[in-house]
Backbone:
């Protein structure tokens, strides 16, 4: 006699519909599933017709009580290791507390993943890493019973990228001042735009705004009026 299904492959008009159908078939909430998008769907060959999305969904193992033990660090490490097991990726996982960006904010929980050639966990422009971090936050919040800010880094990628973005922000601010005109950066995901805003929020001569929609949203660096005090 076969046991209950732990994974399923779904074909549907969109990825979202495939996830909804698969969650219903497995009897689980979407946040309790590992989602692997095999084909996002789209136009058919030569632009004719449409190609349906194809998604593989797997149940994530619910952590036993002894893995939690009211210890967010150990619980988060266990969650990330379980995700790596599902992805057939080997790596060392270590969680630690970081520093809060503002006095009234909670301390972030930082997770470092190290190993041999973990570029598969980073993806193009960090997209896979962002997805891994998002699903980890969902699972950790469910297991601990409250939201927790989890920040995942793979082989130091996020730290290096953050440093690059901060340097870019300062360099583009100087160009805006030297050229006396607004500078527009390339489109970036929300977390990277936020770094640019934070880096320049106290700048005396420029301020920043985000423009555009969706994946084309980008940061602009704008000169402050000469008689405008820094807020």
Residues:
């Amino acid at each position: 006699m076969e046991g209950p299904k732990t994974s399923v492959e779904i074909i549907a008009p969109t990825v979202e519909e495939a996830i909804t159908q698969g969650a219903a078939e497995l009897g689980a909430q979407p946040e309790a599933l590992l989602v692997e998008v095999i084909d996002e769907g789209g136009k058919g060959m030569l632009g004719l017709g449409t190609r349906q999305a194809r998604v593989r969904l797997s149940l994530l193992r619910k952590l036993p009580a002894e893995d939690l033990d009211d210890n967010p660090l150990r619980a988060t490490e266990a969650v990330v290791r379980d995700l790596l097991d599902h992805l057939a990726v080997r790596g060392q996982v270590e969680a630690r507390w970081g520093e809060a960006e503002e006095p009234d904010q909670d301390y972030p929980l930082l997770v470092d993943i190290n190993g041999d050639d973990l570029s598969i966990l980073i993806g193009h422009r960090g997209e896979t890493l962002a997805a891994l971090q998002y699903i980890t936050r969902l699972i950790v919040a469910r297991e601990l019973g409250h939201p927790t800010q989890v920040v995942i880094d793979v082989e130091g990628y996020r730290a290096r990228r953050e440093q690059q973005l901060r340097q870019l922000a300062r360099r583009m601010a100087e160009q805006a001042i030297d050229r006396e005109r607004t500078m527009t950066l390339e489109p970036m995901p929300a977390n990277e735009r936020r770094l640019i805003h934070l880096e320049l929020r106290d700048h005396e001569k420029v301020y920043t705004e985000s423009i555009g929609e969706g994946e084309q949203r980008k940061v602009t660096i704008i000169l402050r009026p000469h008689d405008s005090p820094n807020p």
In short: Residues 6 and 59 are 5 Å apart (CA to CA).
